Amino acid sequence: MEALTIGSSLFPSFFLMFCLIYLIGRFIVFRNWSMNQRREASSCFISLFHGTPAVFLATSAILTHPSWGFAFPNTNFDNLVLDYSIAYFTVDLLHYLILIPGDYLFIAHHLATLFVFVTCRYLVLHGAFALLVLLVLAEVTSPWQNVWTLARIRKTESVNAARLDKLLSFPFYSLYTLMRVIAGPLFFFKMSAYYLSGQANDVIPNWVSVSWIVVVGAAIGVSILWISNLWIELYKETIGSSEKKER
């Protein structure tokens, strides 16, 4: 299937859609929340409209792909999914740059993700298969993570939010660990081995494929560190609760 041209990009439409979703979340859905809470909640809100749809879109693109391979040309469907994710990350990046400029880690994550998606979509027009698999592994936890985050934001003010936070923590951490600590690295090592072998150099310049490896590897490392800290925090909370009950 012939790849889409830049002129037929759906990015502008998706960008406007995510801007509208963001404004609805910030000024309607969370209008009664405090200013600081609204900032984080608005980001979660647009993420809810990206994560799960992106998983379904990427899965459909993978399953309907005429042939799978790390260096195969992008199909129209591949490019549509990439445009969808590029639009989301652009809107969320703007949100952080304008309202939370001090969150350097999150900003760096979005910039790195955009670099990988944009180079695949608009520069080399090959290799979407690998990125879509990684997108599925990353975003399959999105609904759990966003609901958990929203509950955490409000847990000091709402008993129900505190209960939801406690209820979701273990299953969310477990799913995140399975996807980001086990499945993600396994696929990443396979992808890295292929690109480092030079088999894709005819269609994907070496500097592009190596930069993808560096960016994805760094993202996986940060994810492992993040979830490890959450598991430690949950363990300490569980031990603390047990000791209080024994007293």
From TrEMBL:
Alphabetic keyword roster: Membrane, Transmembrane, Transmembrane helix
UniProt membrane topology term: Multi-pass membrane protein
Pfam families: TRAM_LAG1_CLN8
Annotated compartments: Membrane
Keyword Transmembrane helix appears in the UniProt entry: yes
Keyword Membrane annotated: yes
Superkingdom as given in the UniProt entry: Eukaryota
Residues spanning the membrane: 6-29, 41-64, 84-107, 114-138, 170-189, 210-232
InterPro entries xrefs: At5g14285-like, TLC-dom
Domain TLC: 36-239
A GO cellular component annotation in the UniProt record: membrane
Protein name: TLC domain-containing protein At5g14285
UniProt source species: Dioscorea cayennensis subsp. rotundata (White Guinea yam)
Gene transcribed to yield this protein: LOC120260337
